[in-house]
Design a protein that fits this description.
The protein is an alpha+beta fold. The strands form 3 sheets. Strands 8, 9, 10, 11, 12 and 13 form a 6-stranded antiparallel β-sheet that branches. Strands 4-7-5-6 form a 4-stranded antiparallel β-sheet, sandwiched between helices. A 3-stranded parallel β-sheet has the order 2-1-3, sandwiched between helices. β12 and β13 form a beta hairpin.
Length: 337
């Protein structure tokens, strides 16, 4: 079959309202990303179509069967508003026998639960903030204040607000109550690392390309406001938090620190068995100690994303990156056969 006639479906979650998840902007970002990726792949002589995914899942299966694509560009971050189903979508493409981009279902499962991910990383010798799962307000904790409270199964800073920052017992109970009432028990509390925040993106399988580290700079924050990346700071472009929080790539840091961040990212890529693309988030305290926060397989790659900034800093055209993900998916499928 000629290259110009190869077909690819760009799969993404059809935006939907949810009783508990206020992430409309994040979902719109996925739609924007799907359309942009399809456009880039068409430039590279692919027959690319977008495919919104929603229930009933049989409709999606029928579409794949009818279209018979050579590959699927997987942007599904869950199913029908449930982020816990992200791994299921990756497994579905595998069951259908179609090469698909993004990390495998096992990697998505390992990284999905923030608490378990931290435990896994710590077991491999990577420093991470002390954390605990809290099942109800008032539950005892051995953690030292201040703390940051998060829903352990969400990503994209969903569920993280300024109220998630707990300076004392009362603040902790309030943050835990809010998190549990909205996202269900348990909530995860972790010790706040007061310092600089970095993230490092990487892609590939076998030969891994680690992109230049980026820093999240918190500019002109009042002393009373915690320097954390909230949902508002990440997605609400009209907010004060968004204007004062900027991702700078490449980070203005010494080469030695950049090399150390890249080294840890490669180690995490191995620990979580990543085989497509991912991003690792870190904090560094006043003593220069690096703490692992989260490992994010299949992170946001929309036009305004930090991943795009990192590609730009590395002088890698997005179209080249997107097609490389497809090639990686095809190699993975051949190896399974």
């Amino acid at each position: 079959m000629k290259r110009g006639k190869r077909k690819i479906l760009v799969a993404y979650n059809a935006p939907r309202s949810s009783r508990i998840r206020d992430d409309a902007v994040a979902e719109e970002s996925v739609v924007e990303s799907a359309e942009d990726i399809a456009k880039e792949l068409r430039k590279r002589r692919w027959n690319a179509k977008t495919m919104p995914v929603s229930s009933p899942i049989g409709k999606t299966i029928e579409t794949v069967s009818d279209e018979r694509p050579d590959a699927i560009f997987n942007l599904c971050e869950g199913f029908d508003g449930d982020p816990g189903m992200e791994m299921n979508m990756a497994a579905l493409w595998e069951l259908l026998g179609v090469p698909s981009t993004g990390c495998n279902a096992r990697t998505l499962a390992l990284a999905q639960d923030k608490s378990k991910a931290k435990t896994l990383a710590a077991g491999a010798g990577i420093r991470t903030p002390d954390h605990e799962l809290i099942h109800a307000p008032g539950e005892k904790t051995s953690l030292a204040f201040p703390l940051v409270v998060k829903p352990p199964m969400e990503d994209g800073s969903i569920g993280v607000t300024l109220k998630s920052f707990a300076r004392n017992r009362g603040g902790l109970d309030s943050a835990v109550s809010e998190a549990i009432s909205r996202y269900g028990a348990p909530a995860m509390a972790e010790e706040y690392i007061d310092g600089r925040e970095f993230n490092v993106a990487a892609f590939g399988s076998g030969k891994i390309v680690v992109l230049p580290p980026a820093e999240t700079e918190f500019r002109n924050f009042p002393k009373s406001v915690p320097k954390i990346t909230t949902y508002e700071a990440k997605w609400n472009s009209g907010s004060e938090s968004y204007r004062r929080t900027e991702s700078v790539c490449p980070a203005r840091i010494p080469q030695k620190l950049a090399d150390e961040l890249k080294r840890i990212t490669l180690k995490l890529y191995e620990i979580f068995e990543a085989d497509s693309y991912a991003r690792a988030d870190f904090r560094m305290d006043a003593h220069g100690r690096i703490f692992f926060l989260e490992f994010n397989p299949n992170p946001d790659i929309s036009p305004s994303s930090g991943f795009r900034k990192a590609l730009l800093a590395a002088r890698i055209p997005f179209g080249v990156f997107a097609e490389e993900l497809v090639k990686t998916a095809e190699r993975r499928r051949r190896n399974r056969k």
